[in-house]
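Obj: model holo form, ligand = magnesium ion.
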Amino acid sequence: MDQLITIERFIIDQEREYPQATGIFSRLLEDMALAAKIISRETRRAGLTQILGMAGRVNVQGEQQMKLDIFANETIIRINSYGGRLAAMASEEADDLIHIPPEYACGKYVLIFDPLDGSSNIDANISVGTIFAIHRRKSFDGCGVIEDCLQPGRTLAAAGYVIYGPSTMMVYTTGNGVHGFTLDPTLGEFLLSHPNISIPAQPKYYSANHSYEPHWTNGVQHYTRWLQGREPMNPEKGGMDASACPLSARYVGSLVADFHRNLLEGGVYYYPADTKFPQGKLRLTYEAAPLAFIAQQAGGYGSNGQQPILDIHPRSLHERTPLFIGNTGLVRKAEAFIAQDDNGTPK
Ligand code: AHM
Ligand code: MG
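Output (holo structure tokens):
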């Protein structure tokens, strides 16, 4: 008989496999699920701000309306500030480290997040997402410090994302497989819908913003033509062989949506360095690293085109990185083209 398993029950069942677990980590994941439900509720009403009151203006109830990315940011901070679980937080929406208010205890984890990635898509009613990463703190006591957040993805304790699409899903890993939960809005519960996700061996899609092609390196341009089945690599130098190609192009322009589709269907997403973004556009600590950890747990791979994303030691909270992520063989192929044709820097 099919079982109905809520995310809370699943988290507790996983915790039982670690007798030394204190439960703090489980509560942290449950808090993220609660934040996701609240953000989901608000994104569902996004188009209604037009008639109920625009962001930054007063709505018909006389309440101040907030932009959704600010709302998402404040929701995650509010839910995670107390409870003694975290030593500090960092967010795409905050320049500096977010400290735990002095009236609350500091805990042993740090949370780094992008509260509403792809938020420029909201006005067109396109899927957006939240991405989060949880590290064990490095500092020993007191409040957390920035070095607690500047750890390579390889040491992540957990990572996940929430996609606000036709349905809302939360997908996460604690290094023990990737599991997906779909929100039943009538119950207000995330139910296990996608246990043990693994990227299909046969990919279907590649996802990149083609309008930047003239600004890409020779390696990335050749790689793109290879994905389209228009250009062989002679001799084949690693990664998937050309029988996988041509792949179909799909690009939402909302990282969580593009990543999620390729995770379930097979494919590669890339946002390389180019002349507009010489370091790449995406952020290492709260976009690339958590998604690379999830990809790895699902049998895939995330690279900056030259080395694994998970090996990069961040130097600052908002550091950017090129990103190639998805089926291992497709990402290794990008590395092979980049190594063959350029040194990874824009022309
Ligand atoms: P954001 O963090 O400002 O929302 O930007 C990140 C977004 C990603 O979701 C998406 O993959 C990418 O930027 C799209 O960029 P572009 O419009 O240049 O293709
Ligand atoms: Mg973002």
